[in-house]
């Protein structure tokens, strides 16, 4: 079923735990990666449990090669859990998860992960050594390592820092090194877990623009977890909104059909932002109700 809402198209899939898919119009066809490097990700009926606790369940996501998908949802709903499963760090307890048609069974250089903290960089290695770590482990020649460092440090604008150590860089520069280190493995899929969450607003804005440019240049598939609705609108081909946990699932899927680079003041972007706020707000309120927090906050507001 498709419901057209001036610039935004909402598609409702009936059935248990009905999933809503909403569409706003797109600039680049997500299935046409710039460099043809991306691998498709397919999640079907996936559930992930920790002991008796079911974090997510019934997750269905078909992410075409080269797509940029943002994952939004209330805090603690299971975004990082789902991303970790995509990275092969944890296994799905039910359903299937494939990358490039093959089941994800564990960590793989094809599946690159960028974490919120740049503490994952090797402090005792130079930027060049950090970025070429993966290729070095694969035994590629020194000439090839230098080519890789040159290409990916160039992509993140840090060629001039090749001989510095992470401790000598700003937080934003370290995040760029982390991104270059992941890209140096030439992964088909890049998974980003709130990569700019710890950065100041200006640095964050610069890195968002760089991420969009790097994604277009590399052609890889990106799954990007964020709390920031504007960040999602700026970057995504599609935005998936998760329900509140436990047993969280995909509530809605929005296809962002706005020209790149994105203009936040575009009326369609503003409409999408208010739809996303409404959608996520509903889940946050649900989570607060489940935790009994809304009553407590009401009482506190009334001075009880
Ligand atoms: N290793 C684990 N063992 C037990 N429970 C876990 C584990 N990892 C995550 N959880 C639980 O799974 C749920 C989802 O956590 P997750 O970190 O994926 O949420 P999130 O949406 O990424 O949260 P946030 O937005 O706050 O970062 C939470 O209830 C969390 O406590």
TrEMBL record:
Residues 41-269 form the ABC transporter domain. GO terms for molecular function: ATP binding; ATP hydrolysis activity. Pfam families: ABC_tran (PF00005). The keyword Membrane does not apply. InterPro entries: AAA+_ATPase, ABC_transporter-like_ATP-bd, ABC_transporter-like_CS, ABC_transporter_ATP-bind, P-loop_NTPase. CDD domains: ABC_NrtD_SsuB_transporters. Keywords: ATP-binding, Nucleotide-binding, Transport. This is ABC transporter ATP-binding protein. It comes from Streptomyces apricus.
